[in-house]
Amino acid sequence: MKNYYDITGDGGSDILEQVQAREESVARSLSGVRNLLAVGSGKGGVGKSTLTMQLACALRELGNAVSILDADLNGPCQARLGALQDQILVPGERGAPVPTTRNGIGVVSMGSLFPEPRAVEFESVAAGSSYTWRATKEFTVLRELLACMDWGKLDYLLVDLPPGAERIVQYAELLGPSALFVLVAIPSDMARGVVARSIDALAKTPNQILGYVENMDGYYCSDCDRVKPLFPAQSQVKLDLPCLGSVPFDPELAALCDRGGSPSDSPALFSWQPVRRIALEICQRVSERASTLEERA
Amino acid sequence: MKFLCVSCDEPMKLILAKPPERGSLTVVYRCPRCAHEIAMLTNPYETQVVGSLGVKVGGAPIGADDTAKCPFSDVVQGLSADRQGSSALLPWTPEATSRLENIPEFARPMAKTGIEKFAVDRGLAQIDAEVLDQAKDFFGM
User: Fold this and answer.
1) Hey, is the C-beta of A7 within 8 angstroms of any chain B C-beta?
2) In this complex, is the C-beta atom of A144 within 8 Å of any C-beta atom belonging to chain B?
3) Rounded (10°) CA dihedral B100, B102, B105, B111
4) Looking at A28-161, which runs of residues are DSSP E strands?
5) A75 touches chain B (CB under 8 A)
6) DSSP class of A230
7) Chain A residues with CB inside 8 Å of B72's CB?
8) A174-192 b/e (C-beta count within 10 Å ≥ 16 → b)
9) Which residues of A, range 15-54, sit inside 8 Å of B by Cβ?
10) Is this structure's pTM higher than 0.90?
11) Candidates A25, A107, A125, partner chain B, best to mutate (most B CBs within 10 A)
12) Separation CA A29–CA A149 (nearest Å)
């Protein structure tokens, strides 16, 4: 009697072919993207989303074509940060055109499609078991977003990752080996301990981590025009990565971002300059990496 | 998953995939040699495996409408109703309908009602490619 491998084809279910076709369509859709840059941490609440939008603004200011994919399906922030809430997708001739912010940054976020305060719910035909299928469904939706959007030609596609140190590997696999990572930490042992786990997890992938950003490195007080400590002591947890720069917590910048404003419109903001320096550092490291790859080729 | 007709030692072919009913999918296979037919009846968990991948068994829809296999069906259906408001349903030309396939499946119901509202607000009678282009410009894409 024949076994599974004796039989060619799938008898007509076409499931494997469809899954493969979807993966190929992601590669096609991203063919115009020069650099895929995932911004993650592993830890929640460290400012990944805000920093992602700020970096996008800084990269844009440097003359790059930039879009953001908000991969946090359940807690999307990029639509609010880009003032693109309640934005429908309109089908174009090739995929769906990416909604853009006032300053020209493309943003794809579930926050545009599912207005607050509605929670994103995952359907389950088996009652009470949505948790069982959640990861598969999330990544199916992300793959569909990657494949269907008309990303066009981009210098940078930033991917704002949700928390979860172990899940960062799954995002690396989804985005492919050429995706670069920037990790966001804050000066606390608790947060840096989780970031260290993300570094360990990513070490098992072929993906390169460009470095980490020390976010909330102090608190900028506009009254006395200086940065004050936000955390009690220097963190004891060392991260075995280059530090791309540090950004103090700046209430004015946070308020601006909440309103969907672009920090590049307010260049006098204290914390904007550190973000610009980090963006420059990222560009330089990306450029050096490209040169190295070219030499090897 | 493949099915083998044991008597003929012949792989069976899918001939029918019916939409899920109470979470159970019916897929009928036939042996091309002896015409013996069997039906695979999935339990809800097995159905969910396929639905979670966002694919269609045999290329046929596993659900009754566009949203049936969408991972966000419940929310999408709720939002569609919310966003319909007072807008009437407008006819879509085949070209416009075809273009709707270019956006992620879970976003289609919302896009459809949003574009129809855009058209109704402008006194348009149908959705065609030109209306889609106007909507694209209006929404800043």
Assistant:
1) yes
2) yes
3) -50
4) 33-40, 66-70, 96-97, 106-108, 149-150, 154-160
5) no
6) S
7) 114, 120-123, 141
8) bbeeebbbbbbbbbbeebb
9) 15, 18-19, 22
10) no
11) A125
12) 7
Long-range contacts of A128-134 (CB under 8 A, 24+ apart): A129/B45, A129/B48, A132/B45, A132/B48, A133/B48, A133/B49, A133/B51, A133/B52, A133/B71
Domain ranges for chain A: 33-296
* Residue-wise pLDDT tens digits, A228-248: 988 887 788 999 999 999 999
Q: Which CATH superfamily is domain A33-296 in?
A: P-loop containing nucleotide triphosphate hydrolases (3.40.50.300)
CB contact under 8 A, B11 and A9: yes
CA nearest B1 in A: which residue? A10
Which amino acid type is present at position A84? Answer: L
Q: Which residue has 């999918």 as its token pair?
A: B25
Do B114 and A88 lie within an 8 Å CB cutoff? yes
Q: How far apart are CA A81 and CA A27, in angstroms?
A: 28
Q: Which is more confident, B70 or B93?
A: B93
Contact A105, A60 (CB under 8 A): yes
- For residue A250, the Cα-to-chain-centroid distance in whole angstroms is 21
Chain segment B87-100, per-residue pLDDT in tens = 457 899 999 999 99
Q: Number of C-alpha atoms within 13 angstroms, CB side, residue B17? A: 20
Closest in A91, A126, A143 to B111, CB measured: A91
Contact between A114 and A73 under an 8 Å Cβ cutoff? The reply is no
